[in-house]
Amino acid sequence: MKNNKLQWTLGALLVAGCGGSSGGAGEAAPVILAQVSDCDPSAAPSQKSAQLLVQPRAGEGVAGGRPISGSEFWVLEVPGTDVEGSREAALKSGKYHEVEVNAEAQGGDHGSVTPTDPLYSQQWHLSKIGAEQAWFTTSGSSMARIAILDSGVDASHPDLAGRLEPGWNFLTGTSDTSDIVAAITRAADQGIRIINISIGGKSPSKALQNAVNYAWSKGSIVVAAAMNDGNSTKSYPAACDKVVSVGATDWNDDRVEFSNYGPWLTLVAPGRYIACPMRGG
Q: What is the pTM of this model?
């Protein structure tokens, strides 16, 4: 099984959830609203120019911008090299429906950024999904939040301390459908755009699909593990409509034997020998 461009792009989405939990089985805090913090800015190369692509709201002009023929977007030059900061400021202004970095203006083939993490060499999966190239475009933002639905987390871990919002325990001890429904709904109501789920079951559920639909209507994307039964049996919520369902591959882009598989998967991402934060640091 080989990764395609979509798999590489969306696979990067899963870096925050590395397929396991740091907490014990009985320490359930399924919704962790994590702030994705910046990488070490000293590692990032300077950019030649800074441009944004903006979609103005009705009645709003784009001072200093130029329209793109046949599109609702404009090209907006911004001062300095902090293009991500400029993007956030433009979003906060309320003048635009959408704001994104004009990646081509940053040099086409962007180059890459290597983190200062001393254990980076042990994290083969980050290079596999093209994370170094992605970090050249953006190194993250304290404004970006994700929801992790799993069995718990060590909030004192050096990589996580100060970057988590208070969790919420939805699990009743059975991980039944109502728990997952409640967690998805709360995350969507909190305005979380990415909801990552590492639990699931084999039974389809209208209530679960409705929760996914609700999250979708609120602008959230649900990403769910295909689970690790090593067969083609569908798992839910991964097999629900509007869910990005993810299976596991190794360093050769081959399916790992424990990963579920089948045409119901959206993509695959690295899932074997992943170096993850361990409890206690």
A: 0.63
